[in-house]
Automatic annotation (TrEMBL):
It comes from Brevundimonas vesicularis (Pseudomonas vesicularis). Residues 10-324 form the Enoyl reductase (ER) domain. InterPro entries: Acrylyl-CoA_reductase_AcuI, ADH-like_C, ADH-like_N, ER, GroES-like_sf, NAD(P)-bd_dom_sf, Zn-ADH-like_protein. Pfam families: ADH_N, ADH_zinc_N. This is Acrylyl-CoA reductase (NADPH). SUPFAM superfamilies: GroES-like (SSF50129), NAD(P)-binding Rossmann-fold domains (SSF51735). PANTHER family: ACRYLYL-COA REDUCTASE ACUI-RELATED (PTHR43677:SF1), SHORT-CHAIN DEHYDROGENASE/REDUCTASE (PTHR43677). The keyword Oxidoreductase applies.
Length: 328
């Protein structure tokens, strides 16, 4: 049997993608076969499909680091036909066929049963971006940052991680300051819950290693000078959760925020996070995320449009989340 899939191939240094008829016998090993309903496009997907970073490590490969759907067959007792499941990251789109297809065969260890309140569409509106945002919330809470602690900064606030972070934090009672380069979308960020919107340029240039404190904590998707300035402006015993490198992978800072203000820099790894951490994140998402707000910042696109959306993401032209309907 064959099914539609978006396949990435590489010729010399160029990655090309096209929708093909993929043979089910060519799926990779795994205990669980899933009928995929939806996937999504994250920043990492964009880097994978464009070759901006060496995410895909073997070719040809089906990209897509996220998928949600229904179990068709399982050799693992933890899952049965009919179970609704979600998979985020692991080896998907790196060494294992990912979510841009109508079927997948996966390790049972990579799957989580969806909470009853979250549909497969909502699971991909959340995706790795939203799951990472929740990891950021958990990191702030673990570090003792509470709504009464002070303002929380979210950088890259119009992106996937940023927009969900604004939603989650504001609904949990935090006063959220959103940093964005798209000031024309400030009203949209306020509708998600941001109390204040600032221009990203106020943080993107080289700054002093220690600056007047402004934030009790932050979720940063940008890296480089932006993250350095965020650290320099964080209050005593504040927590900064870092998950991205939109500006760059460098971190031009010093030890001063850490030894003078006891600031914690918490890294967020969504790829290899233990299953217990993932379960906690999805349980919290089921109770804490406002699905109506999420719907307002999410659009649905067919499978063939995923590569074009990837380019838009890298250009900073995509707001919020994009769900990929792999059956459209």
């Amino acid at each position: 049997m064959t099914f539609k899939a978006l396949l990435a191939t590489k010729t010399a240094d160029r990655i090309e993608t096209q929708v093909v008829d993929f043979d089910e016998t060519d799926l990779m090993p795994g205990e669980v076969t899933v009928q995929i309903d939806y996937s999504t496009v994250n920043y990492k997907d964009a880097m994978a499909m464009t070759g901006r970073a060496p995410v895909i490590q073997t070719f040809p490969l089906i990209p897509g680091i996220d998928l949600a759907g229904t179990v068709l067959a399982s050799d693992d007792p933890r899952f049965a036909a009919g179970d609704r499941v979600v998979a985020n990251s692991w080896g998907l789109s790196q060494t294992h066929h990912g979510g841009y297809a109508r079927k997948a065969r996966l390790s049972a260890d990579w799957l989580i049963k969806l909470p009853p309140s979250i549909s497969t569409w909502h699971a991909m509106a959340i995706g790795t971006a939203g799951y990472t945002a929740m990891l950021g919330v958990l990191a702030l809470e673990h570090g003792g940052v509470r709504p009464k602690s002070g303002d929380i900064l979210v950088t890259g606030a119009n992106g996937g991680v940023g927009s969900v972070s604004v939603m989650l934090l504001s609904d949990l009672g935090y006063r959220v300051v959103a940093s964005t380069g798209r000031r024309e979308l400030a009203d949209d960020l306020r509708a998600l819950g941001a109390a204040e919107v600032i221009d990203r340029n106020t943080l993107s240039e080289s700054g002093a290693p220690i600056q007047p404190p402004r934030w009790a904590g932050a979720i940063d998707s940008v890296g480089s000078h932006t993250l350095a300035n965020v650290l320099a402006q964080t209050h005593y015993r504040g927590v900064v959760a870092a998950n991205g490198l939109a500006q760059g992978s460098d971190l031009p800072t010093s030890v001063l925020p850490f030894i003078l203000r006891n600031v914690t820099l918490a890294g967020l790894d969504s790829v290899n996070a233990p299953q217990a951490v993932r379960l906690k994140a999805w349980e919290r998402l089921a109770g804490d995320i406002d699905l109506k707000k999420l719907e307002r910042v999410t659009r649905t696109a067919p499978l063939a449009e995923a590569p074009a959306i990837a380019i838009e993401i890298l250009k900073g032209q995509v707001q919020g989340r994009v769900v990929i309907d792999v059956n459209a």
